[in-house]
Each structure stands twice: as structure tokens, then as C-alpha cells.
């Protein structure tokens, strides 16, 4: 697949939230604003890119030479979780304000799961290093756009518009479902017409 | 009339918040709903989730007293990764059609579901009966997964495909539902329908949990 094809597929067609249902968790949806949406998108993109790069290096230099390519899945899980934990640790040491912002989106759900899902898809597609990096960036950008849309919907609805049981995660999921309906316009036929 | 000397019931003993880990558990179930578009897929995912939940909860209970929590989380993650690999390879070898249907969601479910329950076991302050409580916690989470994914899949498959599929070794047994199979609403099988269904399911669970918590809170009684 060409780079524009990968970019459009991972950011619009096979969207990380609207098509794969990854990237929403209580840490992201509680008090969702544009700053947090940007943090989640950025965290997901950076995590996916670094995990994909680490995974590519591990696959090419360790797993395949040793003939244990079947260990790819646990390696991806450990690499992604390890990088997320390391990022949390470094951020806590560097600045508490950034750590507060990224800490909630880098928890072992939400953006981390979005990144893990993206790397699993990339690994199963047999992408090379550059293609994996483009896919990771595109998935993160897609998540950023999606969470920004959800922020806009939440702002328009206001706190009293939904019953208390539907506040937070349930409302974010229903809003995401309705936004995903709009994203069904971006399908493989659309992509095939756009990128030849 | 209330005795002014008696302490308020809520002040006498802290009431545990039964809804504390619920949002995390719902968030862990949501990604699986993208793959659970048939009852068969939901049952396979539930089986993987229950086995992995029990295994990681028991690992967490075993290591909780012996090593620091940070190292314990690593042990649980390692156990989750090994289980995810095992489930993936087993499905690929013996159930290739199931593996093709579930794709990344089989290893993802194993890892994502294990997290909240294992974390709760690791931070459990009472060492007495930790293993039994860990197993109970894992079973409850597994049954919640089965209920959530199974119910959503049942409705989506019945209305979206007009069928009911039971798991089989080579291929599932497909039963056509009279009436519904003639004019299925195919859009219900799309991810957007899964997200909306997950939202309403999460709302229902939240409503029931809040009502239950309100009933059991003694402070609300008088």
C-alpha cells in the first residue's frame, strides 16, 4: 500500500476509535477538553510510532534470526506497555503539569490500547519500518480528530442534557457512535477512488 | 427518633464503593464489542477473557504479598502477554476461522481485560482469603464480559443478520431466524452500532449500579 493510502486508511477508513473502537476510557472521557484530546492523540501517535519502531527492530534483529517470529504478539504487548510506563515515569520526573495531562491518557487503557491495537494491525499487515511509522502517526491523528469531535459534542450538550447515568463514558460512547456513522462515508471504495 | 449519642451509620464504618472499578471494566469490554458481531464470536472472546482473568488474578494474588506492587504489575503483564500469545496461537492452529474473525481482538481482549482486575487484586489491602477473593473478582468480571458482549452480540446478530450462531470447532452452527433473516438491518453490524449499543449498555449498568449503591448505603435509609 502507498504512503497516502496508509495515511488515509489509518486516519479515516480503519479509524482507531470509530472503526476499531479503541481509545476511549474513563481517564480520557472525564472532563474531556481540547487540551486532553490533543494529549491523547499525541500520546497515542508517539506510543504507536515508538512501539512500531521497537517492534520492527526486535522482529528483524532478534525474533526472525532466532526463528521465533510467533513471539511477536507478546513482544508487542510488552514493548508498548514498557514504553508507556517509561514515558509516565520520565514525565513525572520532568514536569508534574505535563505528567498530570499525559498521565491520565497514558494509563493502561485508552490511548495505550489504541496504540497497542494499531501496532498489532501494523505487525499483522507485514509493514516495513517507514510504513509502520506513517500508520502510527495517522492513527494518532485520527484519534485526535475523533476526541476533538467528542469534545465539541460534549460542549454543545452541556452537563444537564443527559440523565446522570449516561454522563461520562456512556455519553461519550453514544456520541462516538453517532460520529462514527458520519465516518462510514470514508470507506474502501472512497479510498480506492482517491489513491490509485 | 434518632439517638443523638449514636454515631451516624455512615460514620461508624466506611462503606465500600461497589461501583469503583466499573468504568474501567466497561472501558475494557468496549473494544471487544467491535469483533463480537455474532453470538459465537462473543462466546469465544468470553471464554478467552474468563480464562485470562482467572489466570492473571491468581498470579496477582500469589505475588501480591511477596514482591512490591510495581514488580507485581510487571509479573501480571508478563502473564497477560503469555496468555495472549497462547490464545492467539491456539486459535490460529485449531480454530483458524475464529482467529480470522476475531483478528487483533483476541490478544487485545486477553490483555485489556486482565488489567483492571489484576490491579484491584494487587492493591487489595486485606491479605486474608486474597486468592479466593481474586478468583471471585475474576469470575464476576468474566461474567460481566459474557453478559455485556453476549447480549450486545445477540441483539446485533439477530437484528443485523437475522441469524443466531453457536460456536463450533470448524465453523459455527448458524440458525436462521424466521422473519428477521428476510429483511436484516445490516447497519447494526457496523462499528457505529457497536459504539451506540456499548454506550446504552454502559448507561444501563451505571444506572443499576447507582441504584444498588444507594440502596446499600445506610446513610440514605433515614
Question: How would you describe the overall organization of this protein?
Answer:
The complex is a heterodimer of chains A (196) and B (222). Chain A is mostly helical and 196 residues long. Chain A is 75% helix and 0% strand. In chain A, helix 1 (3-13) packs parallel to helix 7 (129-157), helix 4 (72-94) packs antiparallel against helix 5 (96-105) and helix 4 runs antiparallel to helix 6. The longest helix of chain A has 33 residues, at 34-66. With 222 residues, chain B is mainly alpha-helical. Chain B has one domain (22-196). Chain B has 8 helices and 2 strands; from the N terminus they run H-H-H-H-H-H-H-E-E-H. In chain B, a hairpin with a 6-residue loop joins strand 1 (163-166) and strand 2 (173-176). The radius of gyration of chain B is 21 Å and the shape is globular. The chains are: A mainly alpha (196), B mainly alpha (222). The A-B interface holds A 18-22, 24-26, 70-71, 73-74, 77-78, 81, 108-110, 113, 116-117, 120-121, 124, 163-166, 168-178, 180-181, 183-184 and B 23-24, 26-28, 30-31, 33-34, 77-78, 80-82, 84-85, 88-89, 103-104, 107-108, 111-112, 115-116, 119, 190-200, 202-204, 206-207, 210.
Amino acid at each position: 500500500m502507498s504512503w497516502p493510502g496508509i495515511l488515509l486508511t489509518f486516519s479515516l477508513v480503519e479509524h482507531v476509535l470509530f472503526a476499531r473502537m479503541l481509545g476511549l476510557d474513563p481517564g480520557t472521557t472525564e472532563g474531556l477538553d481540547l487540551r486532553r484530546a490533543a494529549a491523547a492523540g499525541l500520546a497515542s501517535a508517539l506510543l504507536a510510532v515508538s512501539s512500531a519502531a521497537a517492534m520492527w527492530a526486535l522482529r528483524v534483529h532478534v525474533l526472525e534470526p532466532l526463528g521465533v517470529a510467533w513471539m511477536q504478539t507478546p513482544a508487542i504487548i510488552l514493548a508498548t506497555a514498557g514504553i508507556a510506563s517509561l514515558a509516565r515515569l520520565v514525565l513525572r520526573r520532568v514536569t508534574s503539569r505535563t505528567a498530570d495531562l499525559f498521565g491520565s491518557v497514558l494509563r493502561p487503557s485508552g490511548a495505550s490500547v489504541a496504540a497497542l491495537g494499531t501496532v498489532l494491525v501494523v505487525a499483522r499487515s507485514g509493514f516495513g519500518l517507514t510504513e509502520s511509522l506513517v500508520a502510527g502517526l495517522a492513527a494518532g491523528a485520527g484519534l485526535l480528530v475523533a476526541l476533538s469531535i467528542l469534545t465539541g459534542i460534549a460542549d454543545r450538550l452541556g452537563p444537564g442534557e443527559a440523565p446522570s447515568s449516561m454522563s461520562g463514558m456512556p455519553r461519550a460512547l453514544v456520541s462516538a457512535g453517532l460520529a462514527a456513522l458520519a465516518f462510514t462515508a470514508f470507506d474502501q471504495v472512497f479510498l480506492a477512488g482517491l489513491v490509485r | 427518633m434518632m439517638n443523638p449519642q449514636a454515631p451516624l451509620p455512615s460514620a461508624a464504618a466506611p462503606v465500600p464503593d461497589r461501583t469503583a472499578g466499573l468504568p474501567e471494566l466497561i472501558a475494557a469490554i468496549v473494544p471487544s464489542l467491535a469483533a463480537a458481531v455474532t453470538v459465537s464470536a462473543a462466546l469465544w472472546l468470553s471464554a478467552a477473557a474468563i480464562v485470562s482473568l482467572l489466570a492473571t488474578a491468581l498470579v496477582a494474588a500469589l505475588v501480591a504479598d511477596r514482591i512490591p506492587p510495581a514488580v507485581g504489575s510487571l509479573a501480571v503483564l508478563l502473564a497477560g502477554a503469555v496468555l495472549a500469545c497462547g490464545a492467539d496461537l491456539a486459535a490460529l492452529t485449531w480454530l483458524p476461522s475464529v482467529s480470522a474473525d476475531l483478528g487483533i481482538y483476541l490478544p487485545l481482549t486477553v490483555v485489556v481485560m486482565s488489567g483492571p482486575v489484576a490491579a484491584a487484586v494487587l492493591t487489595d489491602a486485606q491479605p486474608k482469603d486474597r486468592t479466593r477473593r481474586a478468583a471471585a473478582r475474576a469470575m464476576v468480571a468474566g461474567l460481566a464480559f459474557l453478559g455485556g458482549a453476549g447480549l450486545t452480540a445477540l441483539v446485533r446478530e439477530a437484528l443485523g443478520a437475522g441469524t443466531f450462531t453457536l460456536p463450533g470447532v470448524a465453523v459455527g452452527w448458524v440458525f436462521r431466524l424466521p422473519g428477521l433473516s428476510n429483511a436484516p438491518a445490516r447497519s447494526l453490524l457496523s462499528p457505529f452500532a457497536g459504539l451506540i449499543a456499548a454506550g446504552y449498555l454502559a448507561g444501563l449498568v451505571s444506572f443499576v449500579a447507582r441504584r444498588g449503591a444507594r440502596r446499600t448505603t445506610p446513610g440514605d435509609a433515614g
